[in-house]
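Handout for the seminar on molecular recognition.
Each group receives one record of this type.
Step one: identify the two inputs.
Step two: read the structure output and locate the region that could contact zinc ion.
Step three: write two sentences on what you found, then compare them with the reference statements printed after the record.
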Amino acid sequence: MPVKVLIPTPLRRFTGEQAEVEVNDAATVAEALSVLIREHDALKKHLFDDQDKIRSFVNVYVNDDDIRYLDRERTSIKEGDTLSIVPSIAGGAAAGGVGVVPKGNGTPASAAVVDSVVLDQDEIHRYSRHLIMPEVGMDGQKRLKAAKVLCVGAGGLGAPLTMYLAAAGIGRIGLVEFDVVDVTNLQRQLLYSTRDVGRPKLEAAAERLRHLNPHIEIAPHPDRLTSENALDLVAGYDMVVDGTDNFPTRYLVNDACVLTGKPNVYGSIFRFEGQLSVFSANAGPCYRCLFPTPPPPGLVPSCAEGGVLGVLPGIIGSLQALEAIKLAIGAGDSMIGRLLLFDALALKFRELKLRKNPECPICGPHRTITKLVDYDELCGIPRAEPAADKATGDELTPREVKAMMNRGEPFVLLDVRNVAEWNICRIEGARLIPLDALERRISELDTADKIVVHCRSGVRSRRAVATLRDMGFTKAQNMAGGILRWTDEVDPSLPKY
Ligand SMILES: [Zn+2]
C-alpha cells in the first residue's frame, strides 16, 4: 500500500531531486522511513542521529499532524497518507492543543492608545483604500499607526516586508541590520538599487522607507542583535518580524520574544521553498516547540551556498508583512499554531498544525531556559573564525596553489561546487566532484595523490577535506577563500558570483 513521502528542498539532493517518493509495504512511520533510507542511503545521516533517533531539527508529519503528538515513529499509516519531512531552514518560520487562538492576539494598542492617535488629512488621503474597507477602517488604520514593529534583518525577507509595513502606515518600524549592500543582493532585495552598492543597508533602507512614507518613524538599530541587547530592544516594540538568515539569530529572536511575551512573525527561505508561521508563546507554540535545537553547523546549507530564487523572499516576506498587519489591527485568523510550507517550483502551499510542546525548554511548564544564552555556542559555531587573510594548518592560499602549478608540482585540484557553479566559472585544470557526490564517487580519487580542494568561498571545501581525511586521504588540503579569493588574488578575469 503506497504512502507518499514529501521531500523538502534541502534534502532533495539525496533523492535524485525527487520531491515525492512513494513507499510501499509500510505500516508505520518507522517502516516508511527505513524503506526511504534503504533506497536513498545518503538521507540517513540527515534524518537520524547516531542513536538512530529522528534528529531534533527534523519534524515528521503524517498528513498535517506532527508525529511527536501521535505515536511518534510507531504512528501507523495507511494507504493514501502523506508523510512530510520538515527540517529547520535558516534563511531569510500554532492550534492544536492550545484551543482557539483569540483573534488579534498580540494586538498591541489598547483602546485608549488608539483613541489618542490622530490621522491628518494627508494621511486620510494616502490610506483611503484601507479606510473604506470595513476590516481596516479608521480604527484599524489608527491601530497601524500606533503599532511598533521590529524587523530583524533588512535582506531578502526584510526588503519586501519593511516596504509593505511602511506603505501600510505602521507607525514605528525598527530595523536591525549591520550589513552593506552587495551587488548579489539586487537579484531579490528590491529595497536597494544599483547605486546603493557599497552603502550600509541600514542607511539605504531607512532612506528608501522614509521616501515611501514620510508619516511614519523609521528607527535604525545599527548593532548586531545579541544576548546583551535583545531583551531591551524587543521590549520597545509590540512584535518582531524575523527576517534573519542564520540559526543563532533565529533562536535569539525566538527566546527574546518568548521572554518578553511578544509575537514573532517567522519566515524562512531556501532555494525555492519557504516556511511561514507566527510564534506567540502566550497563545501558541514557539520556534523551539517546533525545533528544540538547531542543526549542527554545515549540515544545512545557507542561501549563500544553496542559492535562492529571486522572487521567493518577495512572496514569503510579503506574507510576513500581511501577518504583522493582521496582528496589529486584530483582523482575520493569524498563523499562530500553523506552519505554511510553500514550494515555488510546484506552486503549492501546504499547511501543517503546530502544537505547543509541553517539553519546550523555554515556553513549556518545566522550562529550563529563563534568560538569553550564548547562541553561537548553541549552534556549535566556534567563537573565532581563522583569520581570512592567512591560511592556517591544512590550508593553502590561492597564491600558494598557483605557485605549485607554476612549479609543475603534481596534485589534483578538486572543485566541490555544484554543476551550476562550475558552469559560471572554473579554475583551469580543476576536476569537479560536487560535495554531495563526494562519498559516492570517492573511488575516482587516489589516496596516494596530493589533493587540493576548493569551492566558492572555502566553507564546503573545508568540509570536503574533513570527509576526505576521514576516508584515508591524508594528503588532502583546503584552498582558503575558494574561487572568490582565487579571482581576487590570482585570476581577475574570472567572474565573481
Ligand atoms: Zn516553545
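Reference statements: The longest helix spans residues 312-329. The domain at 395-489 is CATH 3.40.250.10 (Oxidized Rhodanese; domain 1).
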